[in-house]
Design a protein that fits this description.
single chain, alpha+beta, Arc Repressor Mutant, subunit A, Nonspecific Lipid-transfer Protein, Chain A, 2 domains, five-stranded mixed beta sheet
Length: 221
Amino acid sequence: MAPRRDYFDGCAAAHGLDLVGERWALLVVRELMLGPKRFTDLRTGLPHASPNVLSQRLRELEDAGVLHRRRLPPPAASAVYELTDWGYELEPVLQTLGRWAARSLPQADSIGVDSLVMSMRTMFAPGRAAGVEEVVQFVFGDQPFVATLHDGAFTIVRGEATAPDATVAGAPEAWAAVLYTGHPLASAVSDGMLTVTGEQAAVERLLDLFPMPEPLAPAGV
């Protein structure tokens, strides 16, 4: 295993990069932000990370106290990785970095489920949500999430809603196209990219609540 690299700098930001600045480290944190995962689940969420590199990052993050490994009781009896309380404190760091980097975000053909859900947490604009009270069930592949808007606040967590106002199902790329690039919801539904059941107006009300930041002006402009 390659030796861990340090900046040997007394700055707290430098120490933070010592802890989570290696390639894939913050993306491992992102993948665990919505709850514990097995190694195979992390591989699914980070398909371009080699198993050896992923294992190394997990060891480093565990040694740093950012995550820990535990074994589920029978009948599961499998090991999962989950963030510590200190690890969960990285969510606003990820959100700030995401909002900053979104100003120069290139077009992408794919987006992971957890990446999309975390982007919704990041881009939510509370000032636009006054008076919106609803629950929307999202199903990306076989993964259900409950999105709740209440009193100007937004939450989205894994799980199934008992009586949602609407349910949106489809590939994460399809919802990202509607939410962030202006692809019409009606077109996504008619083309079979998404299915919407329940109150479609509840889904449409979401579309103005997650604005992307202004793109960065090209160099020299």
